[in-house]
Amino acid sequence: MEQQAEDMAVAAEPGSAPTHPLDPCTGDELVQAVAILRDTGRLGEKAFFSAGYAAEPPKDLVLGFEPGSSWDRIVRLVGHDRERGQSFDARVSLTEGRVAAFTWIEDGQASVAADDYIAMLKILWRNEEWIAAVKKRGIEDLSLVHIEPWVAGAPHPDLPANARAMHAIAFLHADRADNYYARPLEGLSAHVDCDSGQVVIEDHGVLPMPTDPAEYAADRVDRLREGLKPIEITQPEGPSFEVEGNVVRWQKWQFRVSMQPTEGLVLHDIRYDDDGRDRPILYRAALSDMVVPYGDPSPMHGWKHAFDGGEAALGHAANSLVNGCDCLGEIHYFDNFVLQGNGEPRHVPNAICLHEEDFGILWKHTNVFTQHPKPEVRRSRRLVVSTIVTLGNYEYGFYWYFYLDGTIQVEIKLTGMVGVSVVENNADSDMAPIIAESIASPIHQHIFCFRLDFNLDGPNNSVYELEVEPLPPGADNPYGSAFRSVASRLGTESEAQREVNPARARHWRVVNDGVKNHLGKSVGYKLLPQGSSTMYAPEDSLHAQRGGFARHNLWVTPYAPDELDAAGGVFTNLHSGANGLAAYAAANRSVEDTDVVVWHTLGVTHVPRPEDWPVMPVEYAGFTLMPTGFFDRNPSLDVPPTKACHT
Ligand code: CO
Question: What is the pLDDT of residue 645?
Fold first, then answer.
């Protein structure tokens, strides 16, 4: 692990200097910011960094930015001081060469860093009680034990209240290259304070180690199927998009791309060129945070409710993507720089993938009764911006799709290893279904909260809820079959806390009542949700207190520059809760005809199945943003037919 950490410390590649306030930090900028902060002497010898990134200037500065002009470049540095047992939040002005703000955090701690994992390993492998508990399970070769770090949520009561708490579980390798998730050290976990070194071991009893391997690597499975012939994607004239720095242009779309530690992929200033009319749609769109609460009350799982964004810095876990494996075709990659614990940047090549995909038909009509009897068909294609993160046992792929008809879609792909328990006699339960010989997997949820800062033809927007209701039979309803769409404006933050309701075709429409289409109606985009439950843990549980955003599928708040976090942002780790979105919305402000931010909570309730083992085929979640009266007609009439369709 220490070797691994050293390998990670490769020198930063020089990035080009920022020319726009939303340009991500270069490696050099991170180095500079760290040096300025260290020079102040505020950080002790045992301080380390969890994250460093360009702080976003206020929206009005960004929207009014003139190319070539200067601005105060602020780098936000976040980390933890082990000596002090406290995390810090620093804002360093590179323009002025000084620390512009510095705070020690009272509730919550900086995201978990590799330094914490290394500290935890050292502490546990020096702990005799831990070693004895491992040996009690018949394990002699301790080098075959993999310790899996988990965010603790809250410190164990026997640890200091300000503990840098981690929760460890463990697995056993049969050989160093195998899938150790097949062999959990059932019943054993450890609570570790990475600052003080204190440990609390929990041992709930020994169960026999499962013996079935769970291999999935191509060179370790019994056989590979045959008959799959190559699919090659070729674009002989190159892709149809253009990239300039972090700005992407494709067809009529334009936006900026970046990565943040908590949010991962962030898109800014999404615009559409409507026949020469430059139309803003979203100022900022990103995952804000997510939580994975477990429903199995077993001592190995019941405490789990990982916030992979804020606690684990999801953006730091971005894979370096490979053409032909992760994405296919003519690819443009964006790199990322991650600040490591020691203050040195780590260059992550190919962290974001940009490419086009053919997506079947866009529209089609055939009418043999006219003089124009040939079918009119248009191919749909989409621009894909994506990233894939690995967080311990799990992978999440985040995909933003832009279509030729003005639709934007978000798709999350969930894959990787499910959590596991050892069970005797293949005992099955409705909280932990049996999925393999002696292996059960706890029921859990993956709940994502996306923050959508709309700027639909300007800042002043409102949100309506639309649903369909049947009408009673009567003179106006002679067939007794009438139904209608009813729109209600969501006036305040509390009125705007809503759930999905597929039975009523419920969805939400963001409008600009100050801008009308050619029919005199307000321009709008609808948020089309998928059927998605909210968090099952009751409101007074720690899980729900810390994950207030998971209580509702829809929230609307008025824009405030500091209100970016569904939970506690970079200080979600060990935060006591009642923060973030739920706290913002408690102000119950008006959300009518103002600069609104729409928050959409969605996800997957995962009841594991045998087919999820030994590696889970992708399960999907997502939502769609679709123009509704934003355009005067089908905006894709001008898409030309492909050669094959136009003979
Ligand atoms: Co799952």
Answer: 81
